[in-house]
Amino acid sequence: GLRDVDEEEARLLRESKVHVFTMRDVDKHGIGRVVEMALSAVDPHSNVPLHLSLDIDAVDPRVAPGTGTMARGGLSYREIHYLCEELALTG
Prior knowledge:
This protein is mainly α and about 90 residues long. Helix content is about 45%, strand content about 0%. The chain contains four helices and no strands. The longest helix has 12 residues, at about 30-40. It is globular, with a radius of gyration of 14 Å. The two termini are about 25 Å apart.
């Protein structure tokens, strides 16, 4: 869930056409639905095992105090755990 994105980062993301989900998306839809949408975007037929490279900056600093992004409102422990569980199910 993106948060605390500066103007230049936002511009680069728009230009790259990378599909992104913000913390607002997580708040609005819940982590389960956001994971479903993300998996559908990268593997619409659910037939490829996926590898997760997790940027700790996505996690709330109260859960991951070593993060370089000290902006509050990141993913909770349970949201990150759920994300890992769901990606593990891809094989």
